[in-house]
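Here is an idea for our session: we take a single protein and study its fold together. To get us started, please write out a protein record for me. Start from the sequence, derive the backbone structure tokens from it, and show both lines together. Go ahead whenever you are ready, and we will take it from there:
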Amino acid sequence: MMNYLLDSNTVSDFYDEESLSHHRILRKLGSLDDEDQVFISIITLYEQEYGYSNAPDNKKRAIRKMIEHAKKDFIVLPLAKEGARIFGKLKKQLVDERKLKKENAKKHNIDIILASTALIHSCVLVSSDGIYRDLNELEPNLTTQNWAEN
């Protein structure tokens, strides 16, 4: 049995039939074993809601539909207290390794929260975002996959 945590970009591509990655992600989801579990984070819903609020009126209906489907199609993981410790450690390591300035470090908070959530719940983090390769080098227990690639 495997657990998977989908990043926001994977969720968006999954529901966007015009995305180049849509069919790859759909195929991968279809190839999972019955006992495998696929999750999204509450943070992904927060990001999608921001996308909805920020979208032009002609896109809002499609985004709302995607959000409602995601809530039904996937188990939504809450933030966990245990993740805070991992977040702090990972962020410090990333800032030190990349010599990031304070303002640049902030832009990775959500990515680090998702990585922490994946670690807490023993999930493979599914994303096409390159930051997770860097986080994997800092935390070898973080497993990532990019379903948008062949």
